[in-house]
Amino acid sequence: MAKRRVSNLLALAVLGSVAERPMHPYEISTSLRSRGKEQSIKLNFGSLYTVVDALAKHGLIEAQQTVREGRRPERTIYAITDAGRAELEDWLSELISTPTPEYTSLAAALSFMAGLSPDHVVTLLSARATRLRMDLGAVDAGLSYTEELGLPEVFVVEEQYRRALMQTELDFVTGLAERIGSGRLGGVAAWRRLHELAEEGHSFEEIASDPETYLGKEGAVLAPFLKPS
Predict the structure, then answer these.
(1) For residues 5 and 87, is the Cβ–Cβ distance under 8 A?
(2) Tens digit of pLDDT for each residue in 160-171?
(3) DSSP per position, the chain
């Protein structure tokens, strides 16, 4: 991955906006929100000004003029530079063509879910699935509305991508909850027994000292991973 002079994805949104036409920061913000871009990029007005300043400092955008409307404060209109346009094209090309690791909060939670009991995790996954179904309904309604308006798909393709990710996540968490609940997920027996032992007053150190005795055959497999490093 190329090292970007300003790597915040909000900078990508700013470059993409002023590539259309010169704008002042407030106009950039309202334009992005009116197009629903906050669903794809985290928008924060305070951060936007910081990003604009950084892009200007690195010569990717430049102040074109300062205007005042009525009693409103002066606003600086920025235009993209040749260097900024080249950066935008190269950045977009890289992001579209090259997969990068995504460190999501769900993946982090799943990697440590054994800290909760299996039954509790099933309940939480079911609650997540309910929320995902609601979110999918909202996305579908939005896509249906844009279709009724006759808006070309190219302008909502990021929403189609977001929907695909949500559907995949829903399918995964629903299936995971079922496998945990039914005991078909490998290791659930030892996981459940570990929490039962903890409720009986056994410490993790005690269990880790002789996992096969406490957890059975799965404990023997887990033994190398339970020993302190």
Answers:
(1) yes
(2) 999 999 999 999
(3) -PPPSS--HHHHHHHHHHHHS-B-HHHHHHHHHHTTGGGTS---HHHHHHHHHHHHHTTSEEEEEEE--TTSPPEEEEEE-HHHHHHHHHHHHHHHHS------HHHHHHHTGGGS-HHHHHHHHHHHHHHHHHHHHHHHHHHHHHHHHT--GGGTHHHHHHHHHHHHHHHHHHHHHHHHHHT-STTHHHHHHHHHHHHTT--HHHHHHSHHHHHTHHHHHHHHHHS--
Whether 214 and 202 have beta carbons less than 8 Å apart is answered as: yes
**Cα–Cα nearest to 102, from 37, 169, 23:** 169
- The model's pLDDT over 2-21, given as tens digits with 9 standing for 90+, comes to 688 898 999 999 999 999 99
Q: What is the DSSP string of 18-75?
A: HHHS-B-HHHHHHHHHHTTGGGTS---HHHHHHHHHHHHHTTSEEEEEEE--TTSPPE
Q: For 48-81, what is each residue's pLDDT tens digit?
A: 999 999 999 999 999 998 877 767 778 899 999 9
* pLDDT at residue 212, rounded to an integer: 85
Angle between helices 45-57 and 25-34 (to 10 degrees): 120
| pLDDT recorded at residue 1 | 63
Q: What's the pTM?
A: 0.84
Q: Is the distance from CB of 30 to CB of 36 less than 8 angstroms?
A: no
Tokens 């197009």 correspond to what residue? 35
